[in-house]
Amino acid sequence: MKRTLFHAPRLMGYIPPMTQNPPDLRPDLARPAIPDLPSRAGQPRIGMVSLGCPKALVDAERILTRLRAEGYAISSDYQGAEAVIVNTCGFLDSAKAESLDAIGEALTENGRVIVTGCLGAEPDYVTGAHPSVLAVTGPHQYEQVLDAVHKTVPPAPDPFVDLLPPTGVKLTPRHYSYLKISEGCNHKCRFCIIPDMRGRLVSRPAHAVLREAERLVAAGVKELLVISQDTSAYGLDLKHGETQGHRAHITDLARDLGSVGAWVRLHYVYPYPHVRDLVPLMAEGLVLPYLDIPFQHAHPETLKRMARPAAAAKTLDEIAAWRAICPEITLRSTFIVGYPGETEEEFQTLLDWLDEAQLDRVGCFRYENVAGARSNALPHHVPEDVKENRWQLFMEKAQAISEAKLAAKVGSRTEVIVDSVDSEGATCRTKADAPEIDGNLFIDDGFEGLAPGDIVTVKIEEASEYDLWGSPISS
Question: Which pTM was predicted?
Answer without folding.
Answer: 0.68
